[in-house]
Every structure is written in structure tokens, then in C-alpha cells.
Specification:
Layout lengths: L26 H21 L1 H16 L4 E5 L1 H18 L6 E5 L17 H10 L7 E5 L6 H12 L3 E6 L12 E4 L14 H20 L16 H15 L3 H10 L4 H10 L3 H10 L4 H7 L5
Parallel strand pairs: 1-2, 1-3, 3-4, 4-5
Helix pairs in contact: 1-6, 2-6, 3-6, 4-5, 7-8, 7-9, 9-10
Length: 306
């Protein structure tokens, strides 16, 4: 009997002895038990640190070469991938097509259950084909139990096309083999509610995706220090954030920062270069382009940086 036919042996499906009386606990006891178990998430992330670092470097290299990052998953795993992809453009001003989420069942699966669609490996393969994935792309397959056919099919199709493949699963490699170049295992143990991988497994996956996408964007020059200097100024909150970044880094008051931001075309990066080098917008953009969008490198090469 294959892994796909019998999953009861998987770590994510096992019964947690600490919650055998879950239905008899008080609310406070429930909270305390969840809090204790969630502490295992950080340990799981720490244990996967080397693989996460490799994933950041490989993905950054691919995106620097014009490639794209795809997350593929079903159910909770798929929703987490779509969420992380959707948050990249407003946070890092990245093109919407640069980081994309693929979920079994499409957009409708984001708001209603479609777990029955995860069993079709051919749908995962088709999703890869339809997005014309090539060698310089990266595909991250997310499946808590490591056996989701939709994800496995997608990863296999991506490998055939020469793309870099990364897997994220919450079961040991000895239980399930994943078709990936980089294999990230987040071993959080059995869930308090047996088999409900939206709990610890979902939390660990969210943290791993946070680290991966943010790490990649740092490598691509989207960050200066710990400031999101490529923030997309598309609403009041983000406009306010842009002004605070400029004020904090330059010492300008809010009104002066606002004038500088508008002069730069609402680009925090260009505004900082213009302020620190006395270059005009066009010259600042040329300097930034010469350094592949890395603000620090651009500034270090420019005379007169304050």
C-alpha cells in the first residue's frame, strides 16, 4: 500500500497524547495547551535553517536572472502560498507576476473548501504547463503531509522543465520522499486536533514562507537596513510609512519628506539617493539601475553620500 493510499502513519496524522482529553479542558487550559504546543514551531524552523538559507539563495539567484517564484499547494497550504505571494507587491513593490500562488481549485478555493481537488496530480502538472514555467523559475511545493497529488504532480512537472524545485512538508523524509532540489522539513509533531494541519503545521509553514520571501527580497535589494525602501505607495498607510522612512533616515520633517517623495515620483529609494547625492531623478534612477536596484551599493559608489 502506497503513501497516497494509507496516510495514518504520517507524523501529521498521528494522535497527540497531550490532547487526549481536549474536549474536557476548560478554556484557559485549552489556551495554555495550544501555547505550549506552538512553542515547537520555532524549534522546527530552527532545525530547517540550512535548507531555508539555501532556498533563499537559489531563489534570489533565479529572480535576479528574470525568473519567477511560484508557490503551489492545496487547502491551507495553498492559501498560505497565495497569501505570501499577494503580500509581496505592496511590501516590496515587486511585479505581480514575479511571485505567484497556485492553489488547487483556483481563486474559489481561497474562501471555500475544495480539498477534493487536491487528489488530481494532473491538475498540478497542468498548472505548471499553463504558466509556462522554465529553467530560471522556482516552484515551491507546500504540503503538510508530503503526499498531496496536486503538489507532487506540480513539482514533478516543474522538474521536467528544469525549474528549481523546493518542497515544504511537516513529515520526516523517511516517511515521504519529495521530488525537490531543496527539501524543507518542518517537524512540529502531531496536532492537538489530530490531523488538523492548519494548526502547528500551518503556523510553521507561514513562518517559513515569511523567511523565504523576505530573505529573497532583501537579497534583491528591496531593503535598506531594516526598512522596506521599495514600499509601494498606494494608500494612506503606505504613504505614511514612506514619509516616516524618509524622515527617520534623512532627518527631514514630514513636510520636507513629502516634497522629496513627490519629487522622486513616490519612490523612497530614489528620494534617498536624490537627498544624499544631490542627483536629479533621472541621474538617481540611472545610478540605481547600474547597481541592479541595490540602494546601499548605489550609494557607496556615489560621491558625496551623507
Amino acid at each position: 500500500m502506497s503513501n497516497l493510499e494509507e496516510r495514518g502513519h504520517l507524523l501529521t496524522e498521528q494522535v497527540n497524547p497531550k490532547s487526549e482529553n481536549l474536549d474536557r479542558l476548560s478554556s484557559l487550559e485549552l489556551v495554555d495547551l495550544f501555547n505550549h504546543e506552538d512553542g515547537k514551531v520555532l524549534s522546527a524552523i530552527a532545525a530547517a535553517r540550512a535548507e531555508l538559507a539555501r532556498a533563499i539563495d537559489r531563489t534570489a539567484d533565479s529572480l535576479r536572472d528574470g525568473g519567477r517564484l511560484f508557490y503551489i499547494g492545496a487547502g491551507t497550504s495553498g492559501r498560505l502560498g497565495v497569501l505570501d505571494a499577494a503580500e509581496c507587491p505592496p511590501t516590496f513593490c515587486s511585479p505581480p507576476e514575479q511571485v505567484q500562488g497556485i492553489i488547487a481549485g483556483g481563486a474559489g478555493a481561497l474562501i471555500r473548501s475544495s480539498e477534493d481537488l487536491e487528489d488530481r496530480a494532473e491538475d498540478g502538472e497542468d498548472a505548471i504547463v499553463r504558466r509556462h514555467i522554465v529553467e530560471r523559475d522556482v516552484v515551491v511545493g507546500i504540503t503538510a503531509g508530503g503526499t498531496t497529488p496536486f503538489v507532487i504532480g506540480g513539482l514533478q512537472a516543474a522538474r521536467r522543465r528544469g525549474a528549481t524545485t523546493i518542497s515544504i512538508a511537516c513529515v520526516p523524509a523517511q516517511q515521504v520522499d519529495m521530488p525537490a532540489d531543496i527539501d524543507i522539513r518542518l517537524l512540529v509533531g502531531p496536532e492537538l486536533l489530530a490531523g488538523s494541519t492548519r494548526l502547528k503545521a500551518g503556523t510553521a509553514t507561514k513562518l517559513a514562507l515569511n523567511i523565504l520571501s523576505t530573505g529573497v527580497m532583501v537579497k534583491l535589494g528591496k531593503v535598506y537596513g531594516n526598512r522596506m525602501v521599495d514600499v509601494s505607495v498606494t494608500n494612506r498607510k503606505l504613504h505614511d510609512r514612506a514619509l516616516r522612512i524618509l524622515s527617520d533616515l534623512t532627518g527631514l520633517n514630514r513636510q520636507e519628506a513629502g516634497f522629496l517623495l513627490e519629487k522622486s515620483g513616490r519612490s523612497v529609494k530614489l528620494a534617498l539617493i536624490m537627498h544624499w547625492t544631490d542627483l536629479d531623478k533621472g541621474e538617481a534612477q540611472l545610478l540605481l539601475d547600474t547597481h541592479d536596484g541595490h540602494l546601499r551599493s548605489a550609494l557607496e559608489s556615489a560621491p558625496g553620500k551623507g
